[in-house]
Amino acid sequence: MEQTYFRRGFGLKKHVAPLIRSEYHSGVVERLRARGFQDHWGEGDQRVTVRLAEEFGFCYGVDRAVEYAYETRAQFPDRRILLLGEIIHNPHINERLSGMGILFLQPEADGRFDFGALTAEDVVILPAFGATVEDFRRLQAIGCILVDTTCGSVLNVWKRVDQYARDGFTALIHGKHLHEETRATASQALKYPEGRFLIVRNMDETRLVMDYLEGVPGALTRDGFMARFADRASEGFDPDLHLSRIGVANQTTMLSGDSLEIAAEVGRSLARRFGGEPGYDPAAHFRSFDTICSATQERQDAVSALMEGPQGPPDVMVVIGGYNSSNTNHLAVLCARHTVTYHVADAQCIDPERGTIRFKPAGTPLDAPEVEAEDWLPRGAIVVGLTAGASTPNNKIGEAVERILRIRGIPVDADEPAAAA
User: Fold this and answer.
1) pLDDT digits (tens, 9 = 90+) for 43-68
2) How many whole angstroms separate alpha carbon 100 and alpha carbon 156?
3) CA gyration radius for the chain?
4) Residues 271, 212 share a domain
5) Per residue in 224-242, pLDDT tens?
6) Which residues are catalytic?
7) Which NCBIfam families match (predicted)?
């Protein structure tokens, strides 16, 4: 019988590695890394200092997902290969996979996929964000060959949510309810008949939930609660029944400080609500584990170090990564607290001929339009900071540096000596 589920690749890493390196390597990035993540180009008033956050770009989970996609194409050269959504949230990578003949399955408005045209002869790649339990089972029933690139950090969160549901706790998930990862994570609770979930976007939504639980004056009515969280709760969710035992989890790419604050707030609210009962046991009502992935944390810490270090924040910060990339958006929000920040989807948003930049201001909604800024680089010698989300390859970081320097009329050679300090 043909094997139909693969999670550990096909042993073709050495075969695809040269191609991946040639497509995503950057000599400029290697130069910056070799010189302590900072270098200079130009002289006098035209001098540009580039400072790169010390953790940036591809994380292990993304690297692995991209590699498995390339391996899949090599392993099945004659089969139709489809991808469930996007492998990661980076337009350049997804365009490259499309160019390799990999087809993209996009969800309907309600988040469901139409698998009606799939057959057992098809190969389906599950993205780094994972897939919902329902979608996974539907694909298995069709008999497709499944290549699972789900990130290990996401799997760790799934284990927590699974355990919560098994033990009768509602999974309260800090995340974006339309994000693929959050939908897949929430679905883990539904493997059990009494499994429940509720998704909150931020502390404000968390307080709405906790105020209802505590009966705070002015809290949402039951009808108001159901209307507010209708699309963020499991079917049949009852706030009068399902908020007494809560386990907190999170989308792995959320701001770690926000997730920890939300967990602490939930714990305090549950203690206030049930702490006066005879034989009160906090563990019977509340569970929490820090499930922010290490790569997300490292990139957030590196940005904080760049902003708060002895040199102070750069004059301008450029954050590179897809607008629908959660971890990239949060990097932009962190940077914007310290300096002028431009979140660009791709290096091509920087136009060296016109001297403009197309970007989305940090913290704006996903459906907000791009805006364009002229003369966005301050005059005189400047310091430009750079970082990139976990789904951005090095070649796009290097290209951004080159485009910024071209605005100043400075040619860049990754191997040339640095300008004098």
Assistant:
1) 999 999 999 999 999 999 999 999 99
2) 31
3) 23
4) yes
5) 999 999 999 999 999 999 9
6) 181
7) ispH_lytB, PRK13371.1
**CA separation, residue 83 to residues 63, 69, 186, 235, 353 (Å):** 16, 9, 21, 28, 36
DSSP letter for each residue of 323-340: TT-HHHHHHHHHHHTTSE
Neighbours of 250 (CB within 10 A): 29
The pLDDT tens digits for 164-174 are 999 999 999 99
Gap between the Cα atoms of 268 and 262, Å rounded: 10
Query: To 10 degrees, the CA torsion angle through 115, 184, 191, 285?
Result: -160
How does DSSP classify residue 387?
E
The residues with which 103 forms a beta bridge, in sequence order, are 82
Single pTM value for the model: 0.89
Domain that holds residue 82: 60-150
Whole-number Å distance between alpha carbons of 285 and 169? 8
pLDDT, tens digit, 9 for 90 and up, residues 351-403: 999 999 999 999 999 889 999 999 999 999 999 999 999 999 999 999 999 99
In DSSP terms, 394 is beta-bridged to none
| Angle separating helix axes 13-24 and 394-407, nearest 10 degrees | 10
